[in-house]
Design a protein that fits this description.
With about 210 residues, this protein is mainly alpha-helical. It has one domain: Cyclin A, domain 1, CATH 1.10.472.10. Helices cover about 55% and strands about 0% of the residues. The longest helix has 21 residues. The relative contact order is 0.18. InterPro entries: Cyclin-like_sf, Cyclin_N, Cyclin_PHO80-like. This is Cyclin N-terminal domain-containing protein.
């Protein structure tokens, strides 16, 4: 049986993809270069087309969810932080890896502010499939925190309301979505067993080349 390219997290991964692509518009190449000097890099929009070396957004998100196995509430909290980011920078633009930066940094920040025992940034680099160097992961976390104006506290009622709203929107979008092509067989990586173990150096997948920090 072919491997599931969403690792069992298709619904949640596609929900996250839908939220990010809805929040942030696509910047033409020239516009992205022009706006780079005035807009924060972490507040950049998504590019829906897959480019060489850049994982498809939904699959990138699914892999992160599978490796971390964080509570679903943490994922919804990350999406809420991105909604706040959009409100602060409604016209920010970026590059093809901007959606991946947005999701990884928001999930990382949400887990750290909500959980006592969480992953190290070196582990988050592995979760990001080596797409970003360790120094970039560190910078992404600091920048997102600053761009949000340090407003990262999420109330329970706020989280519940936004989660329900997103679920309704995603359900409506799913009825209009075209079916995905059959997944290609590939080896399934191991989930990160625990936050404590993740603080040690974790092996990355053999097909991922992780650049040095």
């Amino acid at each position: 049986m072919p491997a599931d390219r969403y690792y069992g997290f298709e619904d949640l991964a596609l929900l996250c993809e839908h939220v990010i692509t809805s929040l942030f518009s696509v910047a033409p190449p020239a516009a992205a270069a022009t706006d780079a000097a005035t807009a924060p890099a972490a507040a950049a929009p998504v590019a829906p087309k897959k480019e060489a070396g850049v994982p498809q957004l939904g699959e990138f998100i699914a892999y992160a969810l599978y490796r971390t196995r964080l509570p679903v509430s943490i994922t919804h909290q990350a999406l809420l932080l991105l909604t706040r980011l959009k409100q602060r920078y409604p016209s920010a633009r970026g590059t093809s890896t901007s959606p991946h930066r947005l999701f990884l940094s928001s999930l990382m920040l949400s887990s750290k502010i909500s959980m006592d025992d969480t992953y190290s940034n070196k582990s988050w680099q592995i979760v990001g499939q080596g797409l970003f160097e360790l120094r970039e992961v560190n910078q992404m976390e600091r920048e997102l925190f600053a761009f949000l104006g340090w407003n990262v506290v999420v109330r329970d009622e706020e989280l519940e309301g936004s989660s329900a709203s997103r679920s309704r929107t995603a359900s409506a979008a799913a009825t209009r979505a075209r079916p995905h092509p059959p997944p290609r067989p590939r080896a399934r990586p191991r989930p990160i067993p625990s936050a404590t173990a993740a603080r040690r150096t974790l092996p990355s997948r053999s097909c991922v080349v992780t650049r040095g920090a």
